[in-house]
């Protein structure tokens, strides 16, 4: 099994897309689809971050201690692209409305919902670190936007 084989098989798994924001100064965002709910009691979720990312570097260095998972709507494709390093442009933290979550991490107000976390535990897993987050706050948007998706390396949307 080669790297390419694994990537193409995994790309058959359709996912939603999140922008994980960090409470560093200045704030930082990264596009993540390796997000899952882990436990309801206690409330835990996880995200997997590549060791080569700036987001991982900020969490390891202690520049950030919290993360907020913003579940992106189809209207927020530009955030998904920007935080994946696929688009140049203006800083989304300046251009899109944000609020501050309980932990101090930024929330993009137009997200479908968010899950705001303190880092509960980290697990080293090959070239990624699994960041298990203790949920400090979570909220749903009142709007009825479509969800942003990622499937076979293409962006999409579902109602
Ligand atoms: C749809 C999509 C999902 C991604 N999911 C992850 C992920 O779960 N974990 C990860 O480390 N990188 C993921 N990436 C790649 C990062 O978003 C990308 O490497 C980014 O530029 C890292 O940003 P940073 O180095 O500024 O923190 C994903 C990219 C895309 C397009």
Note down, in words, how this protein is organized.
The model has no long low-confidence stretch (mean pLDDT 96). This protein is α+β, with helices and mostly antiparallel strands and 159 residues long. It starts with a helix and ends with a strand. Helices cover 17% and strands 45% of the residues. The chain has one domain (17-142): Electron Transport, Fmn-binding Protein, Chain A (Pnp Oxidase, Chain A, Roll). The site of flavin mononucleotide (FMN) has 16 residues, from strand 3, strand 5 and helix 2. The site of flavin mononucleotide has 16 residues, from strand 3, strand 5 and helix 2.
CATH-level-4 superfamily name: Electron Transport, Fmn-binding Protein, Chain A
> How many strands, which pairing sense, and closed or not: the largest β-sheet?
7 strands, antiparallel
| Alpha plus pi helix count | 4
| Shape verdict | globular
Strand order of the largest sheet: 3-2-6-9-10-5-4
Q: What multimeric state do the chains show?
A: single chain
The beta-strand count equals 12
Q: Percent of residues in beta strands?
A: over 45%
Gyration radius, in Å: 15 Å
The number of domains is 1
Q: What compounds sit in this structure? A: flavin mononucleotide
Average per-residue pLDDT, rounded, comes to: 96
